[in-house]
Write a structure and sequence with these properties.
eight-stranded mixed sheet
């Protein structure tokens, strides 16, 4: 089965769903608002990360070259006290691989990498990000939610991206955007006791400009 056959298209939302990492390149097509790499985590990895003390989950906000991601995430994991296990190595390898894929698609010499540990209602409103594009992958907890809406209304139907499935989203700064009304949000989890671990990657084309922007936050 070739790649084209493995990509599911939804013209109404501008969404592509693929079973292969190469399928994320659909984001470069004019009518694509978002692309999801449909994959499932190994049960041994998911049970391990789900059972970790939230205080051991890695948190970071870094601007770096894609080739430096692996070493940087390793250090962040060590600082957080995440146990040194085969599953930790899998997490580090996966973040580095997603960084390489995303940087290649965006032709980005640098990336803004965030590892967010979330237990509140962060970004609970449906929106389009103020970036060129963004990759999000939820390693623990409920995945990113999405739907279609117009004129600031809430989507009538809300869908949830599976845990560990990366989604690549066009943002407001993309040169063109399909008029699909595709919007997304972080799931509202406050008060549920749930803790999410989320990877967010943004392309950085101008290091000085990005550094100035970060300094303001």
């Amino acid at each position: 089965m070739n790649l084209v056959q493995k990509i599911t298209k939804d013209p109404a939302t501008g969404l592509r769903v693929t079973d292969l990492p190469e399928g994320l390149s659909a984001i470069l097509q004019p009518d694509c608002a978002a692309a999801i790499w449909r994959r499932s985590p190994l049960a041994s990895f998911q049970s391990w990360i789900d059972e970790l003390d939230p205080r051991q989950l890695p948190k970071a906000r870094l601007i770096l070259r894609p080739g430096k991601v692996r070493d940087a995430v390793l250090k962040v994991c060590e600082i957080s006290g995440m146990p040194e296990t085969p599953q930790r190595a899998m997490l580090i390898d996966d973040v580095a691989a997603l960084a390489d894929i995303f940087a290649g698609l965006m032709s980005a010499p640098y990336l803004l990498l965030r590892l967010d540990v979330i237990s509140t209602n962060a970004c609970r409103k449906f929106h389009v990000d103020s970036v060129t594009a963004r990759l999000i992958c939820t390693y623990r907890g409920t995945g990113t939610q999405y739907g279609t809406a117009s004129a600031g209304a809430e989507p009538e139907e809300v869908f949830t991206i599976p845990t560990s499935a990366p989604v690549l989203l066009r943002g407001k700064d993309w040169p063109t955007r399909p008029q699909s009304g595709f919007v997304h949000r972080s799931p509202p989890i406050e008060g549920t006791g749930e803790t999410r671990l989320v990877l967010v990657l943004d392309p950085v084309l101008d290091l000085e400009e990005a550094s100035d922007h970060e300094a303001m936050h």
